[in-house]
Amino acid sequence: MAIKINIASLNDGSQQLEFVCDSKELELGDNFVKDPVNIVLDLYKTVYQLDVKILIKGVLLLTCDRCLDEFELPFESSLELIFVQKSSREEEINEDNIRSYFAHMRVIDITNDIKETIILASPMKKLPAERSDGSCTWCGKTKEYWRSLIVEKDEDEL
Question: In the chain, how many domains are there?
Fold first, then answer.
């Protein structure tokens, strides 16, 4: 199922829509996000334009880069898209968050934009949060524990 906005049925002015999706609907695979993913759309429609502010909340399922245990990381991401009605003589718009649509279009699909935003919410360094003493909130191990493993391996190689 795709996340589509029926622009033909929207009234001018401000409106809010809420969706609850799962990873299959967003085509993210089974082990990337924990279901459900909450999506809130703040819409503002005028005659020739639709502004969409999107707030996405969910939980990522990640593998720790240190201990290789799976852990959960809550995320909250937002994005804004602007859809502008295009005339037949107009040039294509080269902005990332500005899209054009034709007057005869009834539906706008934002599934891919939401999917990309969730993927970009995944950190490059996948580590759970640390407690004040430096231990992992997920597995409880400290940085010293991991350093000692590296030192022991180096000593074994000598």
Answer: 2
pTM for the whole structure: 0.78
Residue-range definition of the domain harbouring residue 157: 128-158
Partners of 100 in beta bridges = 84
Regarding whether 112 and 59 lie in a shared domain, the answer is yes
50 and 104 co-located in one domain: yes
Main-chain phi, psi angles of 109, to 5 degrees: -95, 120
| pLDDT confidence band for 76 (50 / 70 / 90) | very high
pLDDT digit string (tens) for 87-118? Answer: 655 666 667 788 888 878 889 999 999 999 99
**What whole-number distance in Å separates Cα of residue 46 and Cα of residue 6?**
14
Name the one residue in this structure whose structure tokens are 């640390």: 130
